[in-house]
Design brief:
This protein starts with a helix and ends with a helix. Helices cover about 80% and strands about 0% of the residues. It has a domain of about 100 residues. The chain contains 8 helices and no strands. By secondary structure, the chain is an all-alpha fold.
Length: about 190
Amino acid sequence: MNIYFQLFATFFKIGAFTFGGGWAMISIIEREIVDKHHWIKREDFLDLLAIAQSLPGILAVNIATAIGDKLKGIRGSACATIGCILPSFLIILTIAIFLTPDMIKNNKVISSIFMGIRPAVVALIVAPVITSAKAAKIGWKTVWIPFIVALMISINIGFISNPILYIILGALGGWAFWYFSNKGLKGVSK
């Protein structure tokens, strides 16, 4: 099968059958690009996830663009990105053509469908958090870091609740850990 079509079809499926935004998509994206197609390794997926979350824009689109670029350059990026965006565009276009906001709000069937989707979305968000924690090798010594960061962001007090601050602090902490680990190794080898 043509790799361009595979990229488009894979990300079209991801875009069409995932509700709840980027975090809800992670487990489906991981299953498709790591387990099914073997386009990247699980460790690389975790790095890609961190980069995609740090960049502005939609998580799934950032991942689609990166995977497409890795496999087939700019054409691969275009196929994967269009595949990821197209289902949402078509669904929203269809809703805009046939349903008014009042019809959606006042329709008990549509409201019930969205109420039923909510618990499933929560599960779809929790699952990748657990698998990402395992892949990142978060253990009892480091589990406090994501909890503290989540708490600080949720406090919503000016600069302290800015996620960019914690991305920068995480990068600096990782660099410091690497630097001092390597410095210690150099002292041992002398």
